């Protein structure tokens, strides 16, 4: 069988050669053969020199998505080896038992996401080429993992761009979709059928761990004095029996499962307020606080963050640490401007709620908002809030979410920890 060929234009940006994983229709000079949607196609340069193989989808703007830079046969065996390699890489780089096993194009499996939550696997299929090879994927997973079940979370609208309907449900036999994930010494209840995305945000595991040193060392700033013997004393000279007297007061905004709250408590926070607009998310966070024995150090508010933050500013409420982990406001480039206004508003109000010398932890998971735009947005917010920000650490997604140089799209997560000073 001869494989169809796509000849790229002679004068084009050498994006493929620079590591970009997609070919756009405008880059193609001509197509030889009669490829159908989802077929494998060879990508060659204008002179017919082989460059890569990919999945073809004439319905999509991403008309070819690169699968391999070699000319091996794209078959079930190749899929098995790719998925196995991806899993080995995760095991090599981390001891996490719950992690992203396959991160789409960055694992040279374009449009395929596989998350492992202990003994449950969640699969998300975002491209036609992958959709047509579903059975290869599931067979490989069953060979490599000893899972309790596989759940599909292809309930994302981008599938439409590939001509695909949304799809959710059990891949084989039904099972209990609730899983207790173990992360950084905590137990976190996740529901792979109900949770956001594939159930949980694995990409911030290392970022959550990075909160550790921030959560203690606040006693003196709260006017607490340590004595040679006996309990510490508060500003009025009263003995403090709370073992978390040196911990931070934290606001975890957009808390969802409460993963930041759990880490904050684990690392010694005195009190954490969780805020989310979704009652369901709040219930989840509460269940997780209970599971880890943190109920007495937590409180929960179901409200819209835009209203809540503004009200707290008006009421002159303050915290030692404010964490902002909003959803992707910019789902497309078209809405970027409005999204930036949203991010700025949240960050501006968030900064105002940080006590002088306290900490702002702020993230954005929207890849349309580049790191540069993110920093600009923060700078404008700081200016308007009359604050000076000093960076402690700027981080990205964890190692199980690799980033391809040459593909900005795979570099979506920004995570910054700042000290905030009054100006
Ligand atoms: N920090 C979370 C992940 C955040 S996901 C974790 O660790 O799991 C984003 C969350 O923001 C979702 O739970 C969603 O319900 C919530 N959300 C979306 N819009 C909101 C709004 N306007 N106000 C408050 N919460 C909102």
Characterization of the model:
It is a single chain. This protein is α/β, with parallel strands linked by helices and 423 residues long. The protein has 3 domains: 5-68, Archaeosine Trna-guanine Transglycosylase, Chain: A, domain 4, CATH 2.30.130.10; 76-179, RNA methyltransferase domain (HRMD) like (Transcription Regulator spoIIAA); 201-422, Vaccinia Virus protein VP39 (Rossmann fold), CATH 3.40.50.150. Helices cover 24% and strands 28% of the residues. It has helices at 76-93, 128-131, 134-144, 205-209, 259-266, 279-291, 305-314, 336-352, 371-385, and strands at residues 5-8, 22-23, 28-32, 40-44, 50-56, 64-68, 99-103, 112-117, 120-125, 149-154, 167-170, 178-183, 186-191, 249-253, 271-276, 298-302, 319-324, 354-364, 387-395, 414-422. Strand 4 (40-44) and strand 5 form a beta hairpin. The chain starts with a strand and ends with a strand. It binds S-adenosyl-L-homocysteine. The site of S-adenosyl-L-homocysteine has 17 residues, from helix 5 and helix 7.
Any descriptors?
Transcription Regulator spoIIAA; elongated; 3 domains; alpha/beta; 423 residues; Archaeosine Trna-guanine Transglycosylase, Chain: A, domain 4; 9 helices; 6-stranded mixed beta sheet; binds S-adenosyl-L-homocysteine; 7-stranded mixed beta sheet; Rossmann fold; 28% strand; 24% helix
**Annotated CATH topology of the largest domain:** Rossmann fold
Structural category:
alpha/beta
**Small molecules bound:** S-adenosyl-L-homocysteine
Indicate the low-confidence ranges by residue numbers.
none
What is the helix tally?
9
Major β-sheet strand ordering: 16-15-14-17-18-20-19
CA radius of gyration: 24 Å
What is the general shape? Answer: elongated
Distance between the termini: 70 Å
């Amino acid at each position: 069988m001869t494989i169809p060929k796509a000849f790229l234009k002679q004068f084009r940006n050498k994006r493929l050669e620079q590591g970009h994983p997609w070919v756009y229709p405008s880059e193609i000079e001509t197509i030889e053969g009669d490829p159908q949607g989802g077929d494998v196609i060879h990508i060659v340069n204008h002179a017919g020199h082989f460059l890569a193989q990919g999945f073809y989808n004439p319905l999509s703007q991403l008309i070819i998505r690169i699968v391999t830079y070699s000319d091996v046969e794209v078959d079930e065996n190749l899929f098995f080896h790719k998925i196995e390699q991806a899993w080995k890489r995760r095991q090599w780089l981390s001891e996490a038992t719950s992690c992203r096993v396959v991160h789409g194009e960055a694992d040279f499996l374009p449009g395929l996401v596989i998350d492992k939550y202990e003994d449950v696997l969640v699969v998300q299929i975002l491209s036609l080429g992958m959709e047509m090879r579903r059975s290869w994927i599931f067979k490989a997973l069953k060979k490599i993992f000893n899972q309790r079940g596989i759940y599909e979370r292809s309930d994302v609208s981008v599938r439409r761009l590939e001509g695909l309907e949304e799809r959710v449900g059990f891949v084989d036999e039904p099972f209990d979709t609730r899983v207790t994930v173990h992360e950084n010494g905590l137990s976190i209840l996740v529901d792979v059928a109900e949770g956001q995305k594939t159930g949980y945000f694995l990409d911030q595991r290392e970022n959550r761990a990075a909160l550790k040193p921030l959560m203690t060392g606040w006693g003196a700033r709260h006017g607490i004095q340590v004595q040679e013997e006996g309990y510490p004393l508060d500003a009025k000279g009263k003995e403090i029996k709370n073992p978390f007297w040196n911990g931070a007061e934290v606001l975890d905004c957009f808390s969802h499962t409460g993963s930041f709250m759990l880490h904050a408590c684990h690392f010694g926070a005195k009190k954490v307020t969780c805020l989310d607009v979704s009652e369901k998310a709040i219930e989840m966070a509460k269940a997780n606080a209970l599971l880890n024995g943190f109920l007495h150090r937590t409180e929960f508010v179901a409200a819209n963050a835009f209203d809540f933050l503004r009200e707290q500013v008006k009421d002159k409420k303050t915290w030692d640490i404010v964490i902002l982990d909003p959803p992707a406001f910019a789902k497309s480039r078209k809405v970027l401007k409005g999204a930036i206004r949203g991010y700025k508003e949240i960050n501006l109000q968030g900064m105002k709620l940080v006590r002088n010398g306290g900490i702002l932890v702020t993230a954005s998971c929207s890849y349309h908002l580049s790191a540069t735009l993110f920093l600009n947005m923060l700078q404008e917010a700081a200016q308007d809030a009359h604050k000076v920000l000093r960076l402690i650490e700027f981080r990205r997604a964890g190692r199980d979410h690799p980033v391809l140089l040459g593909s900005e799209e795979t570099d979506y997560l920004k995570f910054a920890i700042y000290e905030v000073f009054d100006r």
